[in-house]
Design a protein that fits this description.
Elements lengths: L4 H11 E3 L5 E3 L25 H10 L4 H13 L7 E2 L2 E2 L1 H17 L7 H10 L10 H22 L6 H4 L10 H10 L3 H4 L6 H18 L21 H12 L17 H11 L9 H7 L3 H15 L10 E5 L4 E6 L2 E11 L8 E10 L3 E2 L2 H14 L3 H4 L2 E5 L5 E4 L10 E4 L8 E2 L13 E3 L3 E3 L2 H8 L8 H8 L5 E14 L3 E3 L5 E3 L6 H9 L17
Parallel strand pairs: 5-16, 7-14, 13-15
Antiparallel strand pairs: 1-2, 3-4, 5-6, 6-7, 7-15, 8-12, 8-16, 9-11, 10-11, 12-13, 17-18
Helix pairs in contact: 1-8, 4-6, 10-14, 14-19
Length: 551
């Protein structure tokens, strides 16, 4: 049964007891949890709290059976009636992750009994990308409790009937924690008792090993910063204290196995620098520059928190992913295509810029559309196209666009062709967010390391390659026919014989199939928000700015 490391670390505080000689012993909990009044708005994960009478009213209104009611009371008692799925800003990251996992499980298992139509109708309001509440208090409470009820139902179905609230209560974060102190507890007492509470998916287990390794590095004092004082960059053959500092830094993290005291950048160090560049997603040119130095200078405590945050996200991954799948990792600016759990290729992508960022969700890719129309989103028509039309009356004609329906904000689409913003093909996995993969005429953006430029959809560096791959089992779609369809003036829809799951994810720390730990920038600020809620004193935050609210 999958478990979550952060919650486990939190549980260490209340789930352990010391015997007479001071050693920590792990023990099983009672079947019902008393109310944890040590949780307050100041130290809680979320800033919303529930009136206990609201819970009892929910049981009556929804005709909840006594066993489920008791599980839910125990669950909320352990949280001091703190919300599990929402914060004052809206649906929390764990809330969105669970909802996506549930929908994916329903889709892949074909178990429609897990689908709650009323809950789904409420969730639409909270998953449309708008973090502000646009609903009344009663609907919010009903959605919060409905998700918790569904969480127990999902656990019973997905995890062989295990619904003990004393176990499930550790899934959702409750209190802020001191990351390093509790990490010490985990490492010192790792064993079978703890491991049976943790996720078993490959991604989680691989990253957990790196967490323990980084804890050892922290215990040894971490690493010293690299100072590029003499020049902006260093190449093989150069000699500088910055080169020596880079050697010592990479030796401290276990990336340099032949440490020496020489300040010369010799040939033996080239592969080490390229590996470090690959770790951070930089161009592997073997140049020690400001970007690489800045990435290497991030303190080990901050990297540990980054790993912990991403372990929380991985806790919501299925134990076994679909063997055929496409995984888009937004901070990496890449998609990865898997067949029989083996990666067959990856591809650079452009993702949404800040303010129109790409949403995290799971779905199934079902359709390919060759030579597509682009139905311009209303927001783009209002904010970009209408002002352009006022400046230039021939703007629509110049962009091969046409008005489909008149109005204050007209419905506009762009015809197939070389100027089409979707390029020559798009790939649809129908979802509430109107997010999809597509080609693009703006190929120059793929030469950049940071590629957050789109309005939310994901642009592909080689859309034709993906089309050929997806249609490999449909022999009528030869490469020649695909070329013709991509360069037509007529839109053509193709339904895939085999739908393929798509996972749109947000990981800033992960271990690849080759065993290399990667780090990426928090381009949408999701890590920053999670750190503010998870950690007492986030390593990269000047102060804890969490505010409180009550419903």
């Amino acid at each position: 049964m999958t478990r979550w490391l952060i919650c486990l670390l939190t549980a260490v505080l209340v789930w352990t007891s010391c015997d007479e000689d001071g050693k920590v012993n792990f023990r099983r909990k009672k079947t019902f949890t008393e109310r944890d009044k040590s949780i307050t708005p100041q130290n809680s994960f979320t800033d919303l709290f529930l009136d206990s009478m609201r819970l009892e009213q929910f049981f009556t209104d929804q005709n909840i059976d006594s066993a489920t009611a008791q599980h839910m009371r125990s669950f909320y008692n352990s949280r001091n009636y703190q919300y599990a799925w929402f914060t004052k800003d809206g649906l929390s990251e764990p809330g969105l992750s669970f909802w996506n996992l549930l929908l994916s499980f329903i889709s892949l298992s074909k178990d429609s009994s897990l689908f709650n139509k009323e809950l789904a109708s409420h969730m639409v309001d909270f998953t449309d990308g708008d973090t502000l509440f646009r609903t009344d208090k009663q609907t919010l409470i009903k959605t919060e409790l409905g998700l918790t009820r569904q969480f127990f139902i999902y656990a019973k179905t997905a995890y062989a009937g295990r619904v003990d609230s004393e176990e499930l209560q550790w899934f959702i974060p409750r209190k802020k924690i001191d990351a390093l102190a509790l990490l010490d507890s985990l490492v010192a007492h790792k064993g079978e008792t703890l491991e049976e509470w943790e996720p078993v998916n490959r991604e989680y287990q691989a990253l957990k090993k790196e967490l323990i390794r980084f804890n050892d590095i922290a215990d040894k004092g971490g690493w010293q910063p690299i100072v590029l004082a003499e020049k902006k960059s260093y190449k093989p053959g150069d000699s500088s204290m910055a080169v020596l500092q880079t050697k010592l830094r990479l030796a401290a993290s276990g990336d340099w196995q032949l440490p020496d005291s020489s300040a010369v950048y010799d040939s033996t160090f080239i592969a080490v620098v390229k590996k470090a560049q690959r770790r951070f997603g930089f161009k592997e040119d073997a140049v020690i520059d400001r970007a690489l130095a800045d990435a290497l200078n991030v303190p080990v405590k901050q990297r540990i928190e980054q790993i912990l945050i991403n372990l929380e996200r991985m806790r919501w991954l299925p134990e076994e992913a679909a063997p055929h799948r496409i995984v888009a990792n937004i901070p990496e600016f890449k998609i990865h295509v898997f067949e029989n759990n083996e990666e067959v290729f990856d591809m650079a992508i452009v993702v949404g810029k800040e303010g129109t960022h790409t949403v995290i969700f799971n779905d199934e890719l079902r359709y390919i559309v060759f030579s597509p129309y682009w139905n311009v989103p209303r927001s783009i028509v209002k904010n970009e196209i209408l002002p352009a039309m006022k400046r230039n009356p021939n703007y629509l004609a110049s962009q091969n666009m046409e008005i489909v329906k008149s109005g204050d904000v007209p419905t506009i689409r762009q015809r197939p062709g070389g100027k089409n913003s979707l390029g020559k093909v798009k790939f649809l996995f129908p979802n509430n967010y109107n997010i999809y993969f597509h080609d693009t005429p703006a190929k120059s953006l793929f030469s950049r390391e940071k590629r957050a430029f789109s309005h939310g959809c994901m642009r592909l560096a080689d859309a034709k390659k993906l089309a050929i791959y997806l249609l490999r089992d449909q022999p009528e779609w030869t490469e020649e026919r695909i070329n013709q369809a991509m360069n037509s003036s007529t839109e053509k829809w193709v339904t895939l014989k085999q739908h393929i799951p798509v996972y749109v994810s947000y990981f800033t720390a992960w271990v690849d199939n080759g065993g290399l730990l990667h780090f990426r920038d928090d381009i949408y600020g999701h890590d920053k928000k999670m750190a503010e809620r998870l950690f007492v004193n986030p390593a990269h935050m000047a102060a804890d700015s969490t505010t409180t609210a009550s419903l």
